[in-house]
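User: Some background: our group keeps a shared notebook of sequences we're curious about, and every so often someone picks one and asks for a predicted structure to add to the entry. Today it's my turn. The entry only has the sequence so far, pasted here. Could you supply the structure so I can complete it?
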Amino acid sequence: MAEIKFSTGGNNNMNIDSKKAKKWTFGIIIAIGLLILIFNCFTLVSEGYIGVKYQLERIVRNDLKPGLNFQIPFIERIEQVEMRNQIYTFEGDAYTRDTQRVNNLRIKLTYRYNPNFMTELIQDVGILNITDRYLVPHVQKISRDTIGRTNAERLVQSRGDIQFEIQETLTRELADFGIIVTAVAIENIAFEAEFEESIQRKVIAEQDALRMENVTVMREEEAKQVVIAAEARAESAIIEAEAEARAIELIQAQIAQNREYIEYLKIINWNGILPQVIGDGVNPFVVLGANEQLPNRPAAPVEQ
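Assistant: Of course. Here's the predicted structure to add to the notebook entry:
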């Protein structure tokens, strides 16, 4: 009988290719694992945040700066905590000192975390629980207590002062928990319609009274100015009279000392017209054409 023989060369080649493929696959898996390991060694912290590093779920760093930060894979992890200003808004009702109800009270609190208290905040309450544990009870209590010590009229007219009081108290109390208050704003207050109308009427009355007071002051000022002007005119007249009297005294003194001064005054003040009558009352001499000015006559020739 004839023997049938099979060649095994093809099988050897297939075995070699299979081994190479396995090596390549294993190498690729190792490379991918190394890349994943390398990527897990670093974490990016964004601007406005700080990084908190946990090692086996225990905080070992709470001050990692923005940028690339190293961590040991599977042993350490880094979480980001926002350090920028954040906003919490309280909405509710309150009562004033004079038992007026404040409807739709809305207070906005702007705050941020103190980085020096970051570990305590995370260990005591956790970042996600800060609003419920600290902000809600403190903002509600302090705002309602402050408004409860204030009359409704003052709350309407001096909202800024009440707002400052609330901010000052919240700043002092929340600082112990590592929360920095940067601003407080009373965004809305509303009273019953009748009370708001009464406040409006009172404000209008006060404005009218102030306007009348300003008119009275203006008229008083005008009267004062009239008096001042009259006094000034009187003083001016007195000064002028005194000056004129002094001038007369000086002229009289000059005349008393020098009689020729009178003749000098007559000459410089003569208008060139002759009097109509010259002489005494017994033998008057009438000058015809006295109102005419004397013509300029040539001088008589001098005899040699």
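Suggested note for the entry: Helices lie at 9-39, 118-124, 130-148, 152-157, 159-174, 193-257, 260-269. The domain at 86-191 is CATH 3.30.479.30 (Tetrahydropterin Synthase; Chain A).
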